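Re: that chain you flagged

S.,

Sorry for the slow reply, it's been a week of failed gels. I finally had a moment to sit down with the sequence you sent. For the record, here it is as I used it:
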Amino acid sequence: MFSILLKHYQLYAYFPSNLNAIPDVVYEFLEAQTECRFENYLDLDANNLDRMLRRYYNDIRLFLGICKFDYDGRAKFCKWAAQYIFPEALNAEEVDDNISNWFLDNKFEMPRPKVLSRLVGSAEKTFEESLFNNILCKLSLSHKNELNNLLATSEGYSEFSNLRSETGAASLANVLDAISRLSLLRKINLPKDLLSELKPNLIEKYRLRASSEDAWELRRHPELVRLPLLSFYTHGQSIIAFAFCYLLGFDLMPRFKGIDKQKLVRPSQRFKGDFPNIDNIFAKSSINWSLMVQQYDEMIKLATALLERTSDAEAILRRFVRGQNQHPVYAALLELGKAAKTLFLCRYLSSKTLRREINTGLNVVERWNGVNNFIYFGKGGEFSTNRLEEQEVSVLSLHLLQSSMVYVNTLMIQNILAEPLWKARMTERDIAALSPLPHSHFNPYGKFDLDMSTHLSLEEMRIAA
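Prediction finished late last night. Pasting the structure tokens below so you have them in one place:
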């Protein structure tokens, strides 16, 4: 019996719950070694068999120098997993290997698979609750309101669904839509250190989880789960945008609402301490140039795919977040994005002219988006068909109405300024602020003239029917 139970532990790293659970391979191995049949213990009295198994289990523990996995061992294991396993977001194979090594190193008897699975699941749930609670405590009331507003649904539309939707091929409308999404993310203005202590793999894991749920599913979660998941999903999105813009040869120039929370990234740790007066605005880690060199060809291929319209950014990013481990190309893009963003921040902070240029330009874009929503007001501004031809007609009609409105407004402004009295009242700042986009004087719903002195001949219609 001792040799049977010992062999089972050597093969499966745990003791069987009963003799029926011992597979034939154990008996076949021992019989081949000893050239004899092993005694059938299944006929023994249950009480005697149970006592015998407990005795042999203790003997094997002593022989192998391991301890029974008791309450203290469980507490030690859960603490270790929370510190070294779950924060890394390892894949299933890596988790199994690390757990097996932990039991070997700590001389504990490994529990049965179902028991171990429940223990790991319970420990991960405890870790997640602690993680989510820490994130929730860092969110202000304003942050919570902004995140909850993403899930607010009107006529089947929500800001969250807009963030999750595909950007599509490169076009003016899609570029404006992408800018609108980035503006929405910056409006939330999450604390920059919210997830700074978390590993990229863990952030990607929860971002993928959030992106797999729609607004209705996320609203069903309690606040402790809902808001942290939204925080993962909306965190750090602009870094990738900086990378792709740099590769495509143009500057991304966003307007940072929380400029005091932005971080610069050192080109190398060799420069640490060289700028003591601004040391607190640097990120802890420096840029990983070697990773960019390794993945340079792949990054160029992705940028070319975007430029040639053979792929879109949404499809590319979905590729990178399929697994739990961070894709090396995605990691390289993040490093490039950090470098490009650092260069932009240095220019942004040192040039008042640049800040004014960005503010003026984005005001025009945001005003233009507002005009689009004013004109294309039906069905929440969304296409009501999946047919490409009908979508193209809708976009072309929108462009025609936009151009017509700008033309009419320009003529009206020219006529007003043609009068010397009005022109004399205009200052240089007034002229700079002129825009062909005002639309409060337009009626998008048409005109309906009602004559209250007349009415329908309902009685005649009833007789005719």
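What I noticed first: The two ends are 96 Å apart (CA to CA).

Talk soon,
D.
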